[in-house]
Amino acid sequence: MSNKLQNLSDKLQATLAAKIQSSVIDCNELTIEVSPGDLVAVATVLRDHDDLAFEQLIDLCGVDYIAYGIAEWTTDSSTNTGFSRGVENADAGRLRFGDELAGANKDKPRFASVIHLISYKHNHRLRVRTFADDNEYPAIPSVIEVWNSVDWYERESFDLFGIVYESHPDLRRILTDYGFVGHPFRKDFPLIGNVEMRYDPEQERVIYEPVSIEPRVLVPRVIREDNRYLSEEEQNKEGAADA
Hints:
By secondary structure, this protein is an alpha+beta fold. The chain is 19% helix and 24% strand. A hairpin with a 2-residue loop joins β4 and β5 (82-83). The longest helix has 14 residues, at 3-16.
């Protein structure tokens, strides 16, 4: 563990202890978690306190934790008939618009906003994570009054994840098309999308239609002539035959 990060963590605890829900040092990064109600107050202290002086917000991103820790591409075993990955339906690649993601973590906070800060004065970096209280209507206070560089980042997070940044002066989509339905970075958004678009020469305009392709996930099937994939009984038979 870096002494520099530990010293920063200690300063944060001394200054904001009552408002920090958790503090974790991992992968040589310090992350603190605060509630939405405390976010703006914490952000102001992080910027203005002489021992912290996080003058610059360098990034903000949304995160969807509904499928956190769930993967259909992991396996602990393999056989001579192939690998057992991709068998379970736990991926947006198999979904149509409106389908429910299997195995989703519905009872846990789903949406979070993660702020990345830098202090040029002290040469420190910090991540601040805030979970929205409501999964159905994820809302988190905007920090644009603290760091105005967050303007487009919050718009991007709103567009792609549907996180509403309260008090943002111009919260509207920034990347998706006009009239786009849904938020494409949500884990339950289908990879095939929800509509197709094409140019109609007769109508002389672009038209939108329901998706016609079928969602699918290509599951690799590997068959090898290799005794590492044989059962113990089959290995014994092969050994006896060679003898």
